[in-house]
Design goal:
- The complex is a heterodimer of chains A (284) and B (273).
- Chain A is built from 11 helices and no strands.
- With 284 residues, chain A is an all-alpha fold.
- Chain A has a single domain, classed as MetI-like fold (Orthogonal Bundle).
- In chain A, helix 4 crosses helix 6, helix 5 packs across helix 6 and helix 5 packs across helix 8.
- Chain A starts with 18 loop residues before the first helix and ends with a helix.
- The mean pLDDT of chain A is 85.
- With 273 residues, chain B is an alpha/beta fold.
- Chain B folds into 2 domains: 237 residues, 3-Layer(aba) Sandwich (Rossmann fold); 30 residues, no CATH class.
- Chain B is 40% helix and 24% strand.
- In chain B, the strands form 2 sheets. In chain B, strands 6-7-8-3-9-10 form a 6-stranded mixed beta sheet, with helices on both faces. Chain B has a 4-stranded antiparallel beta sheet with strand order 2-1-4-5, with helices on one face.
- In chain B, helix 7 links the parallel strand 7 and strand 8.
- In chain B, helix 3 packs across helix 4 and helix 3 packs parallel to helix 6.
- Chain B is globular and about 60 Å long.
- The chains are: A mainly alpha (284), B alpha/beta (273).
- The interface between A and B is medium-sized, with 16 and 29 residues.
């Protein structure tokens, strides 16, 4: 497989051939997803219950991870925050994968002017930083998770569409595609039933890596106070809220969400790279 | 070329031309194939035989010339509808050179056949499971292979699957593009015997594209020799191979390795040609 996934500098080095680290990351992601799904039952306190008498408290029996500047339980906010922190990137990845695959397959299969138009257009999006695009759209449409998710979805589309296009170009040269054409199958049937399933593993590996990047970007947005509404627990938002706690000398409520973000992103990266490597090995 | 009366022709190719840039890949190629007959197209690499085959199946367009199957012109602008597409598929089917590449690696043997059957025969009218069994039986494969993935099969078995897939459409003509070239010699013989049996049973017409004169001798009745995109000689296979008229045909015959074979003399003859 000569087609390379799109990676960001720095994170590209986070990969492993050791199955232990891969399994560890996979397990970690499983735990995070479970926590997010079961948040209402697992969080020990109401994540938004303000208790000013308890502000900046250290870890105790009642608050195992302490409380933030407003006295809200950090553990509960971390667990509940996993929901928005994972839901956002999920939306970004779902949108960019579906739209990117459609654009990539159309460009790769049809070729000609359609390929030129689609490729140039997506390259134009590539030239635009995703975060800026998201900030622009949020400033137009106001707060809410939908606007930044759609904006980042558009910004991530070229990652998927370029990869898909090159995969389709390679795949359609394979003789089995011609065999199906001779048999009388329509182009749409061949694409959906044969080309797509054959390129899907690589695209999914790219989308998994994208999930980590989208998580960073969305956390960055909500750290800037954009996107997620103020009261919703969210990891990026918690880092922002924790600023005053750091200045007061109690950094725990800011550091914990940072750690959660970094670990989750690294785990997604390791898992995605591992899947991509497995696909590449199988094809050889 | 032996004369074949009009109603006996299943495939007729007339005045095909195809150029790739300045290279004339196919130049004024004409031949015809009798109903249930077997015609070989021989020539070395680059002689234009594969391009001719691809024009006939419709994977390539001719610059000029006509391809008629059962008297219907299929080189004319193709209808885009489903009906026209299926009609074209039922005229000519193809077996590709490399059985390792011509099957989708993700699809089992049974599903390959069932997919083609679903496309060409409405489910209500026929029992597809039974037909899949019949087809596999026809190419000498059993129920065990029906559930297998292509990677679990040998080259010969895969080529049998490819043949069964082509037969599922029930075409009038089957184009075999170097269909046994990728197989080892004993498997080649098995596949050629199988193809001969199928032709006897079904009355399908074969167009054998090959560089292998042994294959031509075994399974074809007529032969066309191509060089640089042109037909240099044609006729009954036995006569052409026994008494070649054109220097290039003699060269091809001399190029087959055998005792007392002299490659240097052949190289000299090739340069002289």
């Amino acid at each position: 497989m000569t087609t390379a996934l799109v990676r960001r500098p720095g994170l590209a080095r986070v990969r492993t051939n050791r199955p232990l680290l891969y399994l560890l990351c996979l397990g970690f992601l499983g735990v995070v997803v479970l926590l997010a799904l079961l948040a209402p039952w697992l969080s020990p306190h109401d994540p938004n219950a303000v208790d000013l008498g308890n502000a900046l408290a250290g870890p105790s029996a009642a608050h195992p991870l302490g409380a933030d500047g407003s006295g809200r339980d950090t553990a509960s906010r971390l667990i509940t925050g996993a929901r928005t922190s994972l839901l956002g990137p999920l939306g970004v990845v779902a949108f960019s994968t579906v739209a990117g695959v459609v654009v990539g397959v159309a460009a790769g299969w049809r070729g000609g002017w359609l390929d030129s138009v689609l490729s140039r257009t997506t390259e134009l999006v590539f030239a635009f930083p995703g975060l800026l695009l998201a900030i622009l759209i949020v400033s137009i449409y106001g707060e809410g998770l939908i606007a930044p998710v759609v904006a980042l979805g558009v910004a991530y589309l070229p990652y998927v569409s370029r990869l898909t296009r090159s995969l389709v170009l390679a795949e359609r040269e394979r003789p089995y595609v011609e065999a199906y054409q001779v048999q009388g199958h329509s182009a749409v049937q061949i694409c959906l039933r044969h080309v797509l399933p054959n390129i899907a593993p690589v695209v999914l590996a790219q989308s998994t890596i994208n999930f980590g990047y989208a998580l960073i970007d969305l956390a960055g947005l909500s750290f800037l106070g954009l996107g997620v509404p103020a009261l919703t627990p969210d990891w990026g938002r918690m880092v922002f809220d924790g600023e005053s706690a750091i200045q007061a000398g109690y950094p725990l409520s800011a550091i914990l969400p940072c750690v959660a973000i970094v670990l989750t992103v690294v785990a997604f990266n390791v898992v995605g790279e591992r899947w991509a490597d497995q696909v590449a090995r199988r094809d050889r | 070329m032996t004369d074949v009366s009009d109603d006996q022709r299943v495939l007729e190719v007339a005045g095909l031309h195809r150029a790739f840039g300045s290279v004339q890949a196919v130049h004024d190629v004409s031949f015809c194939l009798a109903r249930g007959g077997s015609l070989g197209i021989v020539g070395e690499s680059g002689s234009g035989k594969t391009t001719t085959a691809r024009i006939i199946v419709g994977l390539e367009r001719a610059d000029s010339g006509r391809v008629l199957v059962r008297g219907r012109d299929r080189s004319a602008a193709a209808g885009r509808g489903r009906g026209a597409r299926l009609e074209r598929a039922r005229e000519v089917q193809m077996v590709f050179q490399d059985p390792f590449l011509s099957l989708d690696p993700r699809v089992t043997v049974g599903s390959v056949l069932r997919e083609t059957l679903r496309l060409h025969v409405p489910e209500a009218k026929a029992d597809h499971d039974r037909r899949v069994e019949e087809l596999l039986d026809q190419v000498g494969l059993g129920a065990r292979e029906a559930g297998a993935m292509p990677r679990q099969l040998s080259g010969g078995q895969r080529q049998r699957v490819a043949i069964a897939r082509a037969l599922a459409v029930e075409p009038a003509v089957l184009v075999l593009d170097e269909a046994v070239a990728a197989l080892d010699v004993s498997v080649q013989a098995q596949i050629l015997n199988l193809l001969a049996d199928i032709r006897q049973d079904t009355g399908i017409g074969y167009l054998f594209i090959t560089h292998d004169l042994g294959v031509v001798r075994c399974v074809t009745e007529d032969v066309v020799v191509m060089r640089h995109g042109r037909i240099v000689e044609s006729g009954r296979t036995a006569e052409v191979l026994a008494d070649p008229q054109h220097a290039y045909t003699r060269l091809l015959l001399d190029s087959v390795p055998r005792p007392g074979w002299n490659p240097k003399a052949i190289a000299v003859a090739r340069r002289a040609l």
